[in-house]
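A favour, since you know our structure tokens better than I do. It will help me judge whether the discrete encoding reads sensibly. The space below this message is yours for that.
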Amino acid sequence: MRSRREFIAILGGMAAWPIATRAQSANRMPRIGYLMDRSGPGLFDEGFLSGLREHGYEVGRNITIEYRWTEGKTERLPALADELVALKVDAIVTAGAQAVQVTKKATTTIPIVMTSSQDAVGDGLVASLARPGGNVTGRSVYAPELTQKRIELLKEVIPSLSRVAVLWNVQNAGGAGQLREAEAAGQAIGVAIESLDVRIPDGLEAGMARAAQAGAGAVLIISDSSTISNRSQIGAAARRRNLPTIFANKAYLIGGGLMSYGSDIVDSFRLSAVYVDKILKGAKPADLPVEQPTKFELAINLGTAKAMGIEVPPTLLARADEVIE
């Protein structure tokens, strides 16, 4: 795995190429816009670069990437999307419903590749998974049946669990739908659901305080770009109130979460490079079905469990795909 310094060097690698070489290849080198609602590069972005390399692309040699980061300021998305459209990039790679929606408003002609959307159809990003239509395609990590599974996993760790708080970003329109799924799942297994509709990161402390006051025994986090960016703050706020957490993918556990169950988002970014390759070779987004993951992983942060005084059942540890000490 590359260090952050090495990865930043890759991003800036274009500058290392001789000016003459860059000038000669400028007219034929494809240019990709890369728009993310978070700060700087990380594991997800290295996954995307890895996918490009698998298809023969090397930044600075035969492909250019125009990076745009919101630096945690979601309100910057429209302006950044407009910048990429003005550059007339060959495709725009982005993640999350809000970023895709903003980019769709900015262009109806430049192909848009989603690296990891949630409910792509429900959020109005594509007409259907099989036939996306329009200029958007990519990968969706949405699997509503996993919500109940995550609550069941919490109950395995905490058999007396009777109330789960669901943390979601009130600025994410798709969060309300996923909350309803959690409420239905909770009703099916006899667990009450407490909604924590907060602005992230500003509302995290107050949200976790509400969860504790409501008697919640654990917190389920609904994923979007804001929760990914603020995973450390979420984990810390929950630990301060001794609230176990479960997330949608293991990348969150770096921030101190207890468990995750879902697809590998880093791999989803890697596989999204397949769409970029096909589009650069002439394929139309409308004709490229949106793909969903077929493998889901259980990860457990044993270090967090020990710090919180939680004893994870050996049977659950045995089923885990990854245990973080």
About this structure: The domain at 4-142+264-287 is CATH 3.40.50.2300 (Rossmann fold).
